[in-house]
Amino acid sequence: GIWGNDRPLVAGGPVQGDADYIRQSILQPQSEIVAGYAGVNMPPYRFSDNQINAISAYIRSLSEQ
User: Fold this and answer.
1) Are 33 and 9 in contact (CB under 8 A)?
2) How many other C-beta atoms can be found within 10 angstroms of the C-beta atom of residue 18?
3) Please, what is the Cα angle at 34 between 14 and 64, to 5 degrees?
4) Is residue 65 predicted with pLDDT exceeding 80?
5) What does the longest C-alpha to C-alpha distance in the chain come to?
6) Roughly what angle, to the nearest 10 degrees, separates helices 49-63 and 19-27?
7) 65 or 42, which is more confident
8) 3-state SS class at 45
9) Within 13 Å of residue 20, how many CA atoms lie on the same side as its CB?
């Protein structure tokens, strides 16, 4: 349910669930914390651009089902 939907942020305002948001969340997970997840501390991950694009495409495919 992430792709294409607005996600409310702890810091205020929404962010759209898209490829940029997925990339940012993987590389810098603490930069835009979604409301309700303030206590969750995810480590940053080291993925290649191709891997991040594949993850993003997979998440997008879930919304199309």
Assistant:
1) yes
2) 15
3) 75
4) no
5) 31
6) 130
7) 42
8) coil
9) 5
pTM (2 decimals)? 0.80
> pLDDT (tens digit, 9 = 90+) per residue, 38-62?
888 888 888 999 999 999 999 999 9
Count CB neighbours of 22 within 10 A: 20
Distance CA 7, CA 45 (A): 21
CB atoms within 10 A of CB 25: 22
Q: Which residue has the tokens 């669930």?
A: 17
CB distance 28 to 21 below 8 Å: no
8 A C-beta contact, residue 40 and residue 25:
no
Residue 17: the pLDDT is 93
For residue 5, give the DSSP letter.
Answer: S
pLDDT at 61: 94
